[in-house]
Write a structure and sequence with these properties.
8-stranded mixed beta sheet; 4 domains; about 1050 residues; alpha/beta; 33 strands; receptor; Rossmann fold; cGMP biosynthesis; adenylate cyclase activity; Transferase(Phosphotransferase), domain 1; 9-stranded mixed beta sheet
Length: about 1050
């Protein structure tokens, strides 16, 4: 075993703590799981307290190439495990670890031989999701410390996980180097949510809670803080999450911590835990690793996890050996460990089908009487739901004593207009009852003046704060696509929506901001003035799409702007399923009219909301500006910010093809021309209706706009005809049979030449709803129906084909490994040339059957084939248990070698002779089907010496051996006697080093084309005296029954 551990006693998985437990587990495996032929031994590599992939991967390579390890134990930390897990997957070596909590390790395509015996950070999203669902919380803020490695990793994983769960968390990254004060961070968080997840070290957590107490947040009962302390461990790894510090702030901290719900691992000690603790303490006292051992599951969980990992690996190794498997096949051994349940010192250990431990979690609340956190709820890994513990109650601070509401009555900033109106009416009503009429009027005038002045101050402050502005350093860009106007395939878009590593969009670029993917549109500008007008536009857009009381499910959320020299980036919500145009142009998607009407309805709802909001119009509505999010909601995007949009139009006066295509959706009254350059002139609500009419044509024909004209006239000619305002006006041609009559009529009304004759979106909504029998058309319902009709078996088919592909790949690999040595086959698979190698000393085995020629003459060809197949199948099953390689069979000749291609020092002679002994024993009970009265007479020759090996040929390549050693081994067999193993002097000299083989000198034998050679022929003797179990060796007893033949006997085989 190659053990890779970090040397840093500040972490709970350091070599000082873990390695003694590994040694205890190794002793248990060697005693209880493995026989005397195999034993676990460890090669320890310790790297310093810097957890990085470079050092760990380098040590792993050293262990693999120099020590020939068959399994890696560790590393525990994420960054080190990344590199080791990848190379181990390439080498097909198992990796077992007691931690490795990063979410990336769920990808077992990349980490195919990794098994984790601890928790995974990726499961925290389900735990938090269950708690949020339990109390009806949807809006949340995540604050995590980027300076702390553990907090930073956990914060990023949790943000990505909750986003996948359907939440849209606001992420705030804390850094001690930042000039922003903690109170300011909490005040910013309060503008977005009342649920705050704190991923912070213990001391930093206490500072945040004291700052929250100073703001009055915990005492109000309107806030809840979620903390993560998976286990208790002294030192800086988690930090002290307790409120006590024995200082003047303890009282305030205790009161503040009442608003915390804490998430921890639910740990249950196994029956053997106390015994394990005692053995560990004793072992530590005898070892070179000295540290204080905490005899609690919470303090030493990783020690137990590594111990259980070794035991489970030993059990898998035992099963592999009992079934004749390859102990170097990491993929297969790993699968023996997966989807299994066993009892270890850390309690019940469940390894799921993906090779990860199923972990239970506990939710804790502070007992106000004791000041200690106690378990009030559980999250069971195999149930995935929050379960309240009977008799336990969460103490909610504040006067109401109830869970905080997801959202305050008047909004997070008190901006709810209806709420303000209600308060104003209540105040006015109260004053009316208490004052004369003239005083009331005067008071109202003064109050209105004061209120308006106050609102102007607030508005100016919001405008100048530029909260929407995003620093370029906070955005992680993908390379901008040069082909952003082309149409992607639906398969690409689907994979984009489901993969965490793919950023493909047809009409936009994708980046990551605050851990969340966002869509980015770039506008080139010569100069951009941050005018009041632009600030008001940005504020309006943010007001429409960010505030929960005004947010609409069919509008893409505005994130912010990034201003750079000569360019502006607009960041909006990322919708991974692609655009409406992508869906329409993909012929693989069958769209019935129910589906099409649902798409239309979502567009109409979004546009109706825009027209009724402060934005008033869209101005750039196209099918590529209608996108589908991960929940299959169609959303309208690219609206608002007209001042910026004008910059884009000016920059596109060169009339590139993409810009001209966009103009096909523009109403004739908004099309203009300067010289030969086309441009947009103004925007309006009726212009949006015209654009919607063009989208209607696209949905009906499932085509690009003006599709019937394409190929006949160019895009510029189409624009000229639309601008000419002919009678009748030039419009797309749509056959009457392509759509319901009511929809065709609506389309014609939408692109009427006179804007006054075009309907509003209120009217359009009613007409489309009437086409669906006045029932609401929902995209999700339609998609569910569509999936039931057209894709019910898609996952089964994909899974079946994938499994077939994997199985066929495994079969082809196994077949290749049976033809060529594994290391040689891997080189050929990678397209590398196999360079011939000269080996200083190997041992070669030859055997044939005495009287085979006579037997073949008296048998039919089919009988000879059946006989050889039975015999060589028996031989093949025997040699699998030894470090040997079968070179070839020619007729009745069987050739085996040890010591190449993988060198095994001087053990090659012993491996060959032990194999030969077993073959002699097995052949004595071999039954010749067509000649049951005959006994098989095997003749064996063995010789050791130098040899050259390499692959010969391109078609049906063979791994061949060359040199005098091959010829000598063949002559040793051909000049030998039946039922005897004949070894040369060179082989005998190697065997003598073991002191366990008994040989007898046969004498000089003259060989063809060779000088006289002295042959050592081995003789048998009783091995029972070496049998420590008190039982005789069945193999030897079979051999001893047929004296006086000469047989090689190994006294170590019992």
């Amino acid at each position: 075993m190659g053990v890779l551990l970090i040397s840093d006693d500040r972490v709970p998985f350091s070599v000082q703590r873990v390695y003694p437990a590994i040694e205890i587990a190794m002793e248990t495996v060697n005693t209880k799981y493995l026989n005397d032929s195999y034993a676990l031994e460890s090669e320890l590599q310790v790297f310093d307290n810097v957890c990085n992939s470079r050092n760990a991967t380098g040590f792993a390579a050293k262990l693999f190439y120099e020590n020939h390890v068959s399994v890696f134990v560790g590393p525990a930390c994420v960054y080190a495990l990344e590199g080791v897990g990848r190379v181990a997957s390439f080498w097909n070596i198992p990796v077992i670890t007691g931690l490795g909590d990063g979410g990336q390790f769920k990808n077992k395509t990349e980490y195919s031989t990794l098994t984790r015996f601890s928790y995974c950070q990726c499961r925290l999203r389900s735990v938090f999701g269950s708690v949020l669902k339990e109390f009806g919380w949807k809006d949340l803020v995540i604050i995590y410390d980027v300076d702390d490695v553990h907090s930073n990793e956990l914060g990023m994983t949790l943000n990505e996980g909750l986003t996948q769960e359907g939440y849209m968390p606001i992420v705030i990254k804390y850094c001690e180097c930042s000039s922003q004060k903690i109170q300011s961070i909490l005040q910013d968080a309060s503008k977005h949510a009342r649920v705050v997840i704190l991923i912070l070290p213990g001391d930093t957590l206490r500072m945040f809670m004291l700052a929250a107490h100073g703001l009055g947040y915990p005492q109000s009962g309107d806030y809840v803080f979620l903390d993560v302390q998976l286990f208790t461990f002294p030192g800086p790894y988690w930090g002290d999450h307790d409120w006590r510090r024995d200082d003047d702030s303890d009282a305030a901290a205790r009161e503040a911590y009442d608003a915390i719900l804490r998430l921890s691992l639910s740990l249950t000690e196994g029956d053997d835990w106390q015994t394990f603790c005692r053995e560990s303490a004793e072992h530590i006292a005898r070892s070179a690793f000295l540290f204080y051992f905490f005899p609690t599951m919470a303090g030493e969980f990783f020690i137990g996890a590594f111990h259980d990992a070794i035991l489970h690996y030993g059990d898998a190794l035992n099963k592999t050996l009992s079934q004749g498997g390859d102990i170097l096949d990491g993929y297969t051994i790993s699968r023996y460990m997966w989807n299994k349940t066993f009892i270890g010192v850390t309690g019940e250990v469940i390894i799921d089908r993906n090779g990860d431990r199923v972990t239970n979690f506990a939710i804790l609340d502070m007992n106000m009487d004791t000041g200690h956190f106690e378990v009030v709820g559980n999250f069971l890994g195999d149930d995935l739901n929050y379960t309240h513990i009977t008799g336990k109650h969460i103490h909610w601070p504040g006067p109401k004593g109830t869970p905080p509401a997801n959202r305050p009555v008047c909004g997070f900033k008190g901006e709810d207009l209806e709420c303000q109106k209600m308060v104003k009416r209540a105040k006015t009503k109260a004053l009316d009852k208490q004052t004369p009429e003239s005083t009331i009027i005067q008071f109202k005038c003064v109050s209105k003046h004061v209120y308006l002045h106050f609102r102007r101050l607030v508005t100016e402050k919001e405008l100048r704060s530029m909260a929407w502005r995003i620093d370029l350093q906070h955005i992680r860009f993908r390379p901008l696509r040069a082909d952003s106007s082309k149409v992607c395939s639906w398969s690409e878009l689907t994979s984009t929506g489901t993969s965490a590593d793919t950023d493909k969009q047809c009409f936009t670029n994708v980046a990551v901001y605050q851990g969340t993917r966002v869509a980015v549109k770039q506008i080139d500008v010569e100069r951009l003035d941050i005018s009041r007008r632009l600030l008001l536009e940005i504020k309006t857009v943010g007001h429409v799409v960010r505030m929960r009381d005004l947010q609409h499910e069919n509008l893409a959320r505005f994130v912010g702007l990034c201003l750079q020299p000569k360019k502006v980036y607009i960041l909006t919500e990322y919708c991974p399923k692609g655009s409406l145009q992508d869906v329409l142009l993909n012929e693989n998607i069958k769209l019935d009219w129910t589906f099409r009407l649902s798409l239309l309805t979502d567009v109409i709802k979004g546009m109706r909301y825009i027209h009724n909001s402060g934005l008033q119009y869209h101005g750039h509505l196209t099918s590529s500006n209608c996108v589908v999010d991960g929940r299959f909601n169609l959303k309208v995007t690219d609206f608002g910010l007209p001042d910026l949009q004008r910059h884009r139009h000016v920059s596109q006066l060169n009339n590139n093809h993409e810009f001209l295509e966009k103009l096909l959706w523009v109403a004739p009254e908004h099309l203009g021309k300067v010289g030969k350059a086309y441009l947009m002139i103004g925007v309006s609500q009726k212009g949006d209706v015209y654009s919607f009419g063009i989208i209607l044509e696209e949905i009906i024909l499932r085509s690009l706009p003006f599709d019937t004209c394409r190929g006949i006239i160019e895009t510029k000619d189409i624009l000229n005809k639309v601008m000419a305002r002919e009678s009748p006006p030039f419009r797309p041609k749509v056959p009457a049979q392509e759509a319901p009559a009511g929809l065709l009529l609506l389309m014609l009304q939408c692109w009427e030449e006179s804007p006054l004759l075009r309907p509003t979106f209120e009217v359009i909504f009613k007409k489309v709803k009437a086409l669906h029998n006045n029932r609401d058309v929902n995209l999700v319902d339609t998609l569910i129906k569509r999936l039931e009709e057209y894709a019910s078996n898609l996952e089964d088919v994909v899974e079946e084909r994938t499994l077939e592909l994997i199985e066929e790949k495994k079969k082809s690999e196994m077949l290749l490994y049976q033809i060529l040595p594994r290391c040689v086959a891997e080189q050929l698979r990678q397209g590398k040339a196999v360079v011939p190698e000269l080996h200083d000393c190997v041992t070669i085995y030859f055997s044939d059957i005495v009287g085979f020629t006579t037997m073949s003459a008296d048998s039919t060809p089919m009988q000879v084939v059946e006989f050889l197949n039975d015999l060589y199948s028996l031989f093949d099953s025997v040699i699998e248990n030894y470090d040997v390689y079968k070179v070839e069979t020619i007729g009745d000749a069987y050739m085996v070698v040890s010591g190449l291609p993988q060198q095994n020092r001087d053990s090659h002679a012993a491996e060959i002779c032990r194999m030969a002994l077993q073959l002699l024993v097995r052949t004595q009970t071999f039954h010749i089907r067509h000649r049951p009265q005959d006994h098989l007479l095997l003749r064996i020759g063995v010789h050791s010496g130098p040899c050259c090996a390499g692959v010969v040929g391109l078609k049906m390549p063979r791994y061949c051996l060359f040199g005098d050693t091959v010829n000598t081994a063949s002559r040793m067999e051909s000049t030998g006697e039946a039922l005897k193993i004949h070894v040369s002097s060179s082989t005998k000299e190697i065997l003598d080093k073991y002191g366990t083989f008994v040989t007898e000198l046969r004498g000089q034998v003259k060989m063809k084309l060779m000088a006289l050679t002295t042959i050592k022929s081995t003789v048998s003797r009783a091995c029972q005296r070496l049998d420590v179990s008190g039982q005789g060796d069945a193999n030897h007893l079979l051999a001893a029954e047929r004296e006086p033949r000469v047989v090689l006997t190994d006294s170590t085989r019992d």
